[in-house]
Every structure is written in structure tokens, then in C-alpha cells.
UniProtKB/TrEMBL annotation:
PANTHER family: GNAT-FAMILY ACETYLTRANSFERASE, SPERMIDINE N(1)-ACETYLTRANSFERASE
GO molecular function: acyltransferase activity, transferring groups other than amino-acyl groups
Keywords of the record: Transferase
Domain of life: Bacteria
Entry protein name: GNAT family N-acetyltransferase
Domain N-acetyltransferase positions: 8-172
InterPro entries linked: Acyl_CoA_acyltransferase, GNAT_dom
SUPFAM superfamilies per UniProt: Acyl-CoA N-acyltransferases (Nat)
Alphabetized Pfam families for the sequence: Acetyltransf_3
Amino acid sequence: MTNNTERLHFRPLEVTDVDWLMDWENNPSNWTAGDRQVPLSRGTFQRYVNNASETLAEAGQFRWVIERRDTKSPVGLLDLYQYSERHQRAAVGILIESSARNLGFGKEALRWLIDYSRDVAFLHQLFAEIGSRNEGSIKLFESVGFVSVGVLKDWLRKKDYFEDVVQMQHLL
């Protein structure tokens, strides 16, 4: 299996990624699903990138940079995390840069990740937890075979309300 699709290339993080990674990760609009409430320092990102060479089995997670093959520019990040070797499963995370959304890159990246997870990582299933108001992300995951298997009520605290989380699963 290659690290390429028709339009995309998937590669591990590199030291040269720190600047744009800081911009993306420190953007509060990208914090909607996680617990972070403050920006992280350059040193934190440098340490993270320096340790990014660990395998999925070693670290329990792995992150790929999603690059356009034609321009070699990053358009997103793709994550496997909460990896369980025993249960052969992992959670999926994806972030596509706002200017690259609705161009099919997310769907192409998830299709590649499904193949990788089945054929290289030998996983049995993938799962994702998506805010119920994030209709675009829910539709994206459904378009590649994920199904809704449950709802966590009032799971994400927003500024003025709590949001449900849709649990999605894909058996490989």
C-alpha cells in the first residue's frame, strides 16, 4: 500500500511543520471537540513533532499530514488515536484546512485511512465521536461507511450550551 491517493500524499509530521501546525492547532475554531482552552507553546509543538516518529503501537496514536500532490502543500491532518492492540480498534480524527473544505479531500483521506487501518495496521474497527451540530463531518463519515451507533447527551460544553456527541463506527 502506498501513502498516496490520486490527489493526496500522507506523511508523518516533520520539524518543518511546526509553524503551520501551531497556527492550525492554536486556532480556537479547531478546538470544538477537544478539551483545550488555551494555545500551546512553540516548545510544546517542537517536542510533539520530535516524538512523532513513534509507531501507532508504541505511542497509541499516529498523525499524518495530508498534502496535495500537485502543490506539496498541507491541507489537513489525519489521526488514529486511542489505539487498542488487544481489541484491534482506534479512533479517527481529521482536520481539513478551511480553504480546502468541500473539495473531496476529507473523503479521499478517510478512504485511504480505512484501507491503511485494515491492510497495514490490521484493525477490526474504527470509531469517531462527532459533535451533533457538525453535520458536514457526520455526512463525511457516513459517506465512507461509518454508521451512527449512539449519542452521548450533553457531552461537549460550548459557550452557552452543551452539545450531544454522535458516536460513529466502521467495521473493517
